[in-house]
Amino acid sequence: MQAPPARPGDAVGDIDTPALVVDLDAFERNLDLMANAARGAGVALRPHGKAHKCPEIAQAQLERGAVGICCQKVGEAEAFVAAGIRDVLVTNEIIGGAKLARLAAMAKTATVAVLVDDVAAIPGIGVAARAAGVNIAVLVEINVGANRCGVAPGAPAVAVAQAIVRTPGLSLRGIHAYHGAAQHLRTPEERRAAIARAVSLAHETKAAIEAAGIPCPTVTGAGTGTWQHERDSGVYTELQPGSYVFMDADYQKNALAPDQHHFEQSLFVVAAVMSAPVRERAIVDAGLKAFAFDSGPPLVYGAHGWAYVKASDEHGVIAVEPDAPPPRLGDRLWLVPGHCDPTVNLYDWIVGVRGARVECLWPVAARGALG
Ligand SMILES: Cc1ncc(COP(=O)(O)O)c(C=O)c1O
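Above: query sequence and pyridoxal-5'-phosphate SMILES. Below: predicted holo structure tokens.
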């Protein structure tokens, strides 16, 4: 773990670079907006911790009424449980004795839930739960259009639910119906249509499970791009958005309908100009190892005529337009990551700033939790 790039009370201009920085005012408005919107509709909020990997942020979400936290990996969940979070849903299929034993061990101190999309995966989870003397809640993951994990909706999902309830040590919590591919559809109409289909598949599957005499209390899913549709569906009981706390350049490209909420950009990488060899080019100290580039390069925030155009391992090239002021050595650029989750995973610390001062340093405790 690297030394923190700042201390509480430091001037923002003194943060060592490159650093992952959160504007706390914008961040808190994002937290409040989502918490109030879910509460107002009577739908539970279980934000996704894969976006921030940070127990302090999870705690802030719980204080605003979240029922628990989603994680994508057992290691991520372990970091949250070790920090005192008492309700985690691993929104993933977990295969293999070693990982299942870790999952079951967490259930001794926390409520733990996990996904299944195959009858063949169920005995292993049951064995791990019974060996640890715990109960593990299980949700049937159905494919509602993302074509990632997920059993087909309807009868195939009912067969998985039946196998779960027959297995000692396990209980069926409901269905997981997350439509990842819908989140970044650019128009509100496209997202609305994709989620209308997901809602109908989730509704049909819940009804089929209940018709088989099995209670199906929870239908969970949704992300930052579509959550209003799942919230208003009358079918989903729980929302699991993650990126809304930070936002990123990719999510900023989603067009919003007039009634849709706008989350603010709160996450930045602050980088410094370390070379300005010619007027039209400056080099910052944040390159491929400082950002995830899967959704394109970062945007230069609040500066006109400067664009981040190229990266190598440790360098970022800033193109300067002829009428823009030339960057000087030591200038700080606030850069908006293309994709927030994998960018956060590159840093040990989140620097929380309010106005011109550093207020807090939060460890990215689940950084690198790949298993
Ligand atoms: C299962 C699941 N739920 C929720 C989310 C949250 O999505 P977002 O960060 O886009 O809000 C993700 C993100 O990939 C996910 O995989």
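The radius of gyration is 22 Å.
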